[in-house]
Specification:
The protein is mainly alpha-helical and 378 residues long. The chain has 15 helices and no strands. The chain is globular and about 50 Å long.
């Protein structure tokens, strides 16, 4: 029992790397002010470009795993994230910063894919469902802690905020000492070589597209909420970090109650999670002071980290015969959705130049996603 608990904690510690992608999201206004000649959409990529490279890592992770195993993938990912996550501390060129963030994202992607495979391998049934939910809780806690530390470092400078990724080296040590040798894990690809019908692939890809759209919309909130608060003159220079912390707090709570909510709501789970995101966007739209804006961020974080594990778990149960391929598909669409957020903002600007109105549009789109979620059932 003790060893099982240590194993769980070691696996969940990986979230302190994977959930810290947005830890520096609050420094976007500071970077924009320091680089007035750089388009805002390019600066916003500092937050989202890791998701693109994370997706690329997921695509190659199974091949890398066949060569070195899943434990070494996590170790490698932790080292990459620790080194390249902190490199922007000494960089001033936006292109070099984006390159470093991309490589950092690649390291995070290696960890993300391996972590989900480890959970699926080591745990079954309710324990697996609980671990997937706890992954959300650990991610929320990690995001909250790293966002808080990033915010404190941001008070020094936006460069200093990148020191938060020193956490990656602690994760490296936890994995090195407390996760078993990977030899027995490497075989966890049963069913991945089976032949699947076109309709099965269609349903899997459709679920991936649903993940892509819903994650993209949520990431729009993460990327744009600081700018919206500044536009409305809500709070001071620290409001961006506070909002990221509120998103993280909502994610933390979602992880704790995810399993119970899913058991109670059943087929209504996904629609309800999407409608919570709707509430977050609409509350941000009507907010004029800091408190409701923070509440909006909390709701968005809750809904976000409720529908993500739901979709991941659905793949692991409904498409278990795909093996690692099913996990890869869902993680790729998830990463692509997070990366595309700044461009989703550009697309929204074609309909209205008002950032506030764009938040309302996102809220309405989540209502449509809720209808889709209800239609596909459990």
């Amino acid at each position: 029992m003790k060893n099982n608990l240590v194993l769980k904690l070691a696996i969940l510690s990986c979230c302190f790397v994977t959930a810290s992608l947005n830890a520096i999201a609050g420094n976007i206004p500071a970077m924009a002010a320091d680089m007035p000649e750089i388009p805002l959409s390019l600066i916003e990529l500092v937050t989202t470009i890791p998701s693109l490279f994370s997706m690329l890592a997921v695509l190659f992770s199974s091949r890398i795993a066949s060569a070195i195993g899943y434990k070494k993938i996590v170790l490698l990912g932790s080292l990459i994230a620790g080194i390249f996550g902190t490199v922007p501390v000494i960089l001033n060129n936006i292109w070099l910063i984006l390159l470093a963030r991309g490589v950092f994202g690649f390291g995070c992607g290696l960890i993300t894919s391996a972590m989900l495979i480890l959970i699926i391998f080591f745990f079954t049934g309710d324990e697996r469902s609980s671990m997937i939910g706890l992954q959300g809780s650990a991610g929320g806690l990690a995001s909250l802690v790293t966002a808080f530390i990033g915010g404190r470092l941001l008070a020094i400078s936006w460069h200093a905020s990148f020191l938060v990724y020193l956490f990656s080296f602690l994760v490296f040590l936890a994995v090195l000492f407390f996760i078993p040798h990977v030899g027995s894990i490497r075989t966890n690809t049963a069913g991945s070589n089976e032949t699947h019908s076109g309709s099965e692939w269609f349903r899997l890809i459709a679920l991936g597209l649903l993940t892509f759209v819903s994650v993209a919309l949520a990431t729009v909130f993460v990327v744009k909420c600081s700018s919206l608060a500044a536009l409305k003159e809500i709070g001071g220079s620290s409001i961006g970090s506070l909002l990221v912390m509120c998103i993280s707090a909502g994610s933390l709570l979602a992880g704790f109650v995810y399993g119970k909510m899913k058991n109670i709501l059943k087929r209504l789970s996904l629609p309800v999670f999407y409608l919570i995101c709707t509430a977050g966007f609409i509350l941000a739209y009507v907010s004029g002071t800091a408190l409701p804006m923070m509440a909006a961020a909390f709701l968005l974080g809750f809904g976000y980290l409720a529908f993500v594990p739901f979709l991941q778990e659905r793949v692991s149960t409904k498409f278990s015969s795909f093996g690692a391929a099913g996990t890869t598909v869902i993680l790729v669409f998830q990463g692509l959705g997070a990366f595309i957020a700044p461009y989703a903002g550009i697309l929204l600007s074609l309909f209205t130049s008002s950032l506030n109105s764009q938040f309302m549009i996102c809220g309405v789109l989540y209502v449509l996603l809720a209808a889709v979620g209800f239609a596909i059932g459990e």
